[in-house]
Amino acid sequence: xxAMQPFHLAFxxxxxxxxxxxxxxxxxxxxxRSSEKWxxxxxxGHQLSAHVKLEExxxxxxxxxxxxxxxxRHFGVVLEWEDWHDLAAxxxxxxxxxxxxxxxxxxxxxxxxxTMFFLDPSGNALEFKAFQDPKQIFAK
Length: 140
Description:
4-stranded mixed beta sheet; globular; 10 strands; VOC_core; alpha+beta; 2 helices; 2,3-Dihydroxybiphenyl 1,2-Dioxygenase, domain 1; Glyas_Fos-R_dOase_dom
């Protein structure tokens, strides 16, 4: 597998300050450039651009996956196994409400992974996952 390149994702938010607090203070993302209408974050080595755009905010529909209602529109990152567990504990300590509580999906099957879903303050769905065996990320 070749080295991963950073991705860029722009997404809508309702408020710069609550978004800054969530991504910087809770998730540990460094802040990049910003204005009164947008803010960039270093999202685990990737560039997120959060833009104030209220008319674009909407909860995504969900699909059934492994018996869970997974938001169709979501983004996130694959963490190291221990980092995922540390983040799950930090989110629980901050009483973040989960869409899908942290658990092991596809247990004992190809693609077994730790996963959790939650919303940012603007209602954007995030998924964080981890694999004990990174080669399972794209396994069929």
